[in-house]
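Field log, afternoon session.

UNIT: design team B
ACTIVITY: writing a sequence onto a fixed backbone
BACKBONE:
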């Protein structure tokens, strides 16, 4: 398991636990041994949360909301992170909180919520589900096929647990057992910041049947967007909303920018869209208002 020393500098703000740690299920669609996922897992644990990772045994990108009970594996898990013939579900030999499920992202979230997490928490259910950070952006139409979004929507819609889907624009992959990449560390800091802001604002963490779709910009060493403090956070919508009802009143208008527009027009922005978990479209103005009230100290206007 990666040591926190690899990410100590970018995550120095999270060195001490917060006083209010909660139970979190973490998943993704890139696989349980992907670097982005593991670095955020380190960060959330360092903040004092009880995090149980339950993610696919291998890359399952583009699987949307597919859900099928896991089958026994014949081959090793991704990056040789589990041996061949390991069964349908497994965990790290020394970390029972790190688990793989040989199926789709939504299935791995379901197993984490229904069985893996409660087993480690003496029967208690998770209070929040966090998926990602995904390798690559999940914007607009891509949201419908993203497994990272699909897992979050399963949690919010089917399981009734608030969920946040995180994605980062960088597309390089990184094995879990290598030093944290710059982008993984920055994505973890941004994701942890948003997650903690939602938690600190109190329960209910999100409105019923709502998920947050968060997209982070490309991180480039030495560039204008190379650390978490460089970014601005923008409340957005999943689609353009030309014929949709008005959005929440924010930044002098009743139409939020689409997440695609945010990233095309302001390259170092983090878009935060309030999504309807039942169909992966933009949630209504009432839900947007509740999220705005929680995140207003973070947010900027375009």
């Amino acid at each position: 398991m990666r040591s926190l020393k690899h990410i100590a500098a970018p995550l120095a703000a999270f060195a001490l636990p917060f006083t209010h740690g909660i139970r979190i299920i973490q998943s993704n669609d890139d696989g349980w041994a992907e670097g982005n996922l593991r670095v955020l897992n380190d960060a959330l644990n360092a903040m004092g949360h009880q995090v149980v990772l339950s993610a696919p045994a291998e890359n399952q990108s583009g699987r949307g909301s597919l859900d099928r009970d896991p089958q026994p594996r014949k081959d090793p898990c991704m990056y040789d992170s589990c041996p061949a013939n390991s069964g349908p579900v497994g965990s790290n030999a020394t970390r029972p909180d790190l688990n793989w499920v040989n199926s789709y992202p939504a299935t791995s979230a379901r197993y984490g919520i229904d069985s893996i997490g409660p087993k480690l928490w003496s029967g208690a259910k998770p209070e929040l589900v966090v998926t990602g950070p995904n390798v690559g952006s999940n914007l607009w139409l891509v949201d419908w096929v993203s497994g990272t979004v699909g897992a979050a929507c399963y949690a919010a819609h089917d399981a009734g647990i608030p969920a946040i889907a995180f994605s980062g624009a960088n597309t390089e992959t990184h094995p879990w057992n290598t030093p944290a990449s710059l982008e993984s560390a920055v994505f973890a800091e941004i994701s942890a910041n948003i997650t903690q802001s939602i938690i600190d604002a109190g329960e209910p963490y999100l409105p019923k049947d709502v998920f947050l779709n968060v997209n982070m910009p490309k991180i480039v060493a030495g560039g204008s967007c190379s650390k978490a403090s460089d970014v601005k956070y923008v409340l957005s919508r999943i689609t353009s909303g030309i014929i949709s009802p008005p959005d929440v009143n924010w930044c002098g208008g009743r139409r939020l920018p689409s997440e695609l527009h945010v990233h095309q027009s302001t390259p170092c922005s983090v878009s935060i869209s309030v999504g309807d978990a039942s169909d992966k479209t933009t949630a209504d103005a009432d839900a947007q208002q509740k999220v705005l009230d929680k995140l207003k100290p973070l947010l900027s206007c375009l």
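LOG NOTE: Helices lie at 35-46, 105-120, 147-158, 182-200, 259-265, 285-295.
NEXT ACTIVITY: expression trials, pending approval
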